Amino acid sequence: MKLHLVNKWIGVIFLDSESLALCIYSHEIFDLFLPFVTVRRLNPQMEVTRILLLLVFISSTFCCTPAHGRARLHKKRPRNSIALPPMAEPPSPSFIRRLPALAPEPTIRGNSGLNSTNSTSAHPPPPPEPIDGSHGWNSTNSTTVLDVRAFGAVGDGVSDDTEALKSAWEAACQGGPGLILLPQGYTFKIQSTIFAGPCRSELTFQPTLVYNKVDGTITPPDGPDEWPQSISRRQWLVFYRVNGMKLQGGGLIDGKGEKWWNLPCKPHKGPNGTTLPGTCDSPVVTSTGFTSRFSKANECWKETKLSFSQALRFFMSSNLTVREIRIQNSPQFHFRFDNCRNVTIDTICISSPALSPNTDGIHVENTELVGIYNSVISNGDDCVSIGAGSVSINIVNVTCGPSHGISIGSLGKQNTRACVANITVRNAVIKHSDNGVRIKTWQGGSGSVSSVSFDNIRMDTVRNPIIIDQYYCLSKSCQNQTSAVYVSDVSYTGIRGTYDVRTPPIHFGCSDSIPCTNITLSEVELLPAQGDFISDPFCWNAYGATETLTIPPVSCLSEGLPQSILDIGSDKCY
């Protein structure tokens, strides 16, 4: 009976403890306990002796021997985890690292070990020693991060970090997929610079890692007095001939435009529509040798060449993404996309004072396939301005104001030809603005604006919620001309909210010789922000219809089409 119990216990070991059984096999003691299984009756003393020896051996094996073998060999690291080096070989210091696929708080390897990028020290650490060899590249199979500090950037807001950023760009552009990192907690002062492609592969330009909080900042020199005489002031950061670039992260791009706005040169709209002095040379309304009643100030501008325009310009580029960036206080335009294709702008914030001149938020021209989504823009000019040559522009879920609204134009200045088509603005909010949704053209132009849809837009105290102005002019000296950009196929659906009572809520001022055609309105409800008096809409040479009842009623549209429609249609671009 005792032998049977012992054999049963050994059987339990084999059936219920796989690792124990394997350990017994691995130490080749099968022949030790085999007699207990195959032989039922033995000398009692030998039986007891073998049992004791077996128990002692098993105890010593599992108490004194570490777990090896199968359990060790089949233990896998989680996917995307970083293999740690042996303890005797600490990681070498480097600001260049492989970007983890799912890292909530990425860190940067510094000279004193792993330092979190969440540092908020008032005095940034000094830059690392120059990296020998490949300028900080790690040989990996994924995106490589290039911290501009590894290329000599200081990030104290005083030192000039232009050359460091250019060096990082060159390394990323000529290498594999790369991410140029301007980390949080630093302010990088950058002069006017062109970042030119084409690059060997896609790259990302990131003022701070998308995983981190907003701190990293890029600034230009502080005003015209600090700007070098030999450097262009017409643009600040230009990305030229790049494909597949991403500008992202939670960082701040601060244009420091305050000292530029106060320089007298070009008149611009102030409170209540009055004209005030302001800066020169808007990219849309260019000015060379501008003369006005501010002639003395203009001479100063001519002598010192103090012209400044857009903060960030993308030129002749494609497959661009701008995401989760804050940009503020540009001297003039904040973003400009010129001769580009396939652009996505998502979740950005643009802010400048309401009276800052010509500070358009996003300007596109000669560009197609653009999506602007989920963004907030407040500035002193158009939130979004759509220039000549723009096709297939989609604006969705944008909050705009204070501002001059969302505009197509201005178009046709100085008798130029302009073509714009397939424009959609949907699910937008426009508040405390001079205009809501606007189409503006100069007299004397040619070309066409067609297939435009404004859908589900809420107005909050907007001066001109719906406006087509084909007599756009920045002074009182513009002369009437017979030609004009042809405006057709424009729909307004679900436009609701309040308007500023100083002007009519709906204004269709079309050309004397080239009327607007096929204007449709549906579910339009616009009420005065103050008082009970509802202003009548204004129409001039405008053809179209209302598909539902509107508030206010729009009875001024001409029905059908003008007799000269065949002649007008011949100038249509699309």
TrEMBL record:
Stated family: Belongs to the glycosyl hydrolase 28 family.
Matching PANTHER family: PTHR31375
Region Disordered, residue ranges: 107-139
Location(s) in or outside the cell: Secreted, Cell wall
Pfam families: Glyco_hydro_28
Source organism of this protein record: Musa troglodytarum (fe'i banana)
UniProt-annotated catalytic positions: H404
The name this protein goes by in its record: Polygalacturonase
Gene Ontology BP term (one): carbohydrate metabolic process
Coarse class of the protein's main subcellular location: secreted
Highest taxon of source: Eukaryota
Keywords: Cell wall, Cell wall biogenesis/degradation, Glycosidase, Hydrolase, Secreted
Compositional bias ranges of the Low complexity kind: 110-121
Gene Ontology MF terms: polygalacturonase activity
Keyword flag Zinc: no
